[in-house]
Amino acid sequence: MKILLIQLRRLGDLILTTPAISALREHLPAAQIALAVPGESAPLLPAIQGLRQTFLTKRGVRDLSAWMEIRRAGFDCVVDFTRNDRSAWLTFLSGAPQRIVSDRLKIKSKIRLRFYNEFVDCAMKQMHTADYYLALLQPLGISATANDPLLELPAAAQQLASSIIADQIRHQPFVIFHPGSARVEKFWEPERWADIIEFAAKELDLFPVLSGGSTELERAHLTAIREKLHTTVLDLSGQLDLLSLAALIEYARLLVTVDSAPMHLASAAGTPQVILFGPTNPFHWRPRKSPAAILFGESPEPLHHFQAREAKRPMKQISTAAVIDAMRLMVSAPAASAV
């Protein structure tokens, strides 16, 4: 059986799709599994096991070669995790006899509705994202509980992380701070980041490492943080590829981040983390098994229970004291790895 999975959303979504891919491998070991993703998700693919083929999609007619490859592949089944116009077109183009999507599509689009023939009764707004992706496998006879993300990092990423730890961190226990995001509304105030970085260095005796992307928005945010620092920090922002960052997170004593891809990388590694949520709802995105302290709104301590419907909360509602207390709490948890 040849199965095509379509995941055209962000990196975090792709990471949270890995439990579904693992469930497919376990329950249908003879199946040939292919995955279609956008080009920006390509760096993650070497860490996803069990894929027979991958397709990197683009927008519009630039995607013609991928369209032709998908059409020629002769898939028996397509599972559309994305549910948008592009994924609907790829589903239709595949010519697969079995074309699966959430039944919520019936509400969204009468046109796209015609591109599918099996509809699963599941609503992303009512579920954790990983559970939603697993639920879409029900027509294949698969019913499983979502674990944390599953990634197998290549040797090159592991070697680079080991080199950084030996040469620049010098085998000290360290904490990674990842303040950035593609969405500016997820930014926390630079002076607060500076305060918790200095707390980690002076009070927790953890060597601070700064990570982040290379976009102009993130660079400006990181510059504002560095300008307020009065302690030494190893700034690796814009210098690490995704899987090398994942490997470094595996060895970290702690990750402090906003809701972003590194949060999911830490979940896969089991690394303790403190996560700041604001415009996104932890109900849908939080780690559920790996150690994590989740801060949301004005709560002075980490929260453990969330509702499917939560109003967006400004990041500034999270106090510096709450983050410091959460860091102290998580450092007392067992480390995922020893440096």
- State the distance separating the first and last CA atoms: 44 Å
Mass-distribution shape = globular
What is the highest CATH level, the class of the largest domain?
Alpha Beta
In spatial order, strands of the major sheet run 3-2-1-4-5-6
* Low-confidence runs: 335-339
Series of H and E elements = EHEEHEHEHEHHEHEHEHEHEHEH
Could you describe the largest sheet, including whether it forms a barrel?
Answer: 6 strands, parallel
Proportion in helices:
25-40%
Number of distinct helices: 12
Using only C-alpha atoms, the radius of gyration works out to: 21 Å
Count of separate structural domains? 2
Please, what is the average pLDDT?
94
Structural class: alpha/beta
**How is the CATH topology of the largest domain named?**
Rossmann fold
Please identify, by name, the CATH architecture of the largest domain.
3-Layer(aba) Sandwich
Total strands: the figure is 12
Q: How much of the polypeptide forms β-strand, as a percent range?
A: 15-25%
CATH superfamily of the largest domain: Glycogen Phosphorylase B
Multimeric state of these chains? single chain
Task: List descriptors.
Rossmann fold, single chain, globular, 6-stranded parallel sheet, 12 helices, alpha/beta, 339 residues, 36% helix
Note down, in words, how this protein is organized:
This protein has helices at residues 11-27, 64-73, 85-94, 105-108, 129-135, 155-169, 190-202, 216-227, 242-251, 261-269, 282-285, 320-331, and strands at residues 2-6, 32-38, 53-57, 77-80, 98-102, 118-120, 174-178, 207-210, 234-235, 254-258, 273-277, 292-296. The chain is of the alpha/beta class and 339 residues long. It has 2 domains: 2-140, 3-Layer(aba) Sandwich (Rossmann fold); 155-331, 3-Layer(aba) Sandwich (Rossmann fold). The chain is globular, with a radius of gyration of 21 Å.
